Amino acid sequence: MKLICDANIGRRIALALAAEGHDVVRSTEVVPDGSDTDVLAYAVATDRALITCDRDFGELIFRYGATPPPAIIYVRFEPEDVLDIIPRLIPLLDFDRVKGHMAVLGAEHDRHTPFPEKS
Length: 119
Prior knowledge:
By secondary structure, the protein is α/β, with parallel strands linked by helices. 32% of the residues lie in helices and 22% in strands.
């Protein structure tokens, strides 16, 4: 799967996802000093799912009508060891499962919300 990790997703997670065979870029490398809008535009233009810890992307899409990328995975919990996020992320990286959705990884459970349909 093609992924972009937002600036708040650490290098260790990006490397672990790449080791799983995913095509991963970090926003700090491809959109240095970019705003959330810039990162979102890059994800859309390059057809990459976005992994973030920033709830602002949901607001851009659901409240302001920004064009969504193929998927967003919003990590909403902070484990003791950042790599504990990986076992929670891997099942979500089945593209058919997250395509067209914002998946939220919570401390106890996950939820998926479909992106609004464009009129």
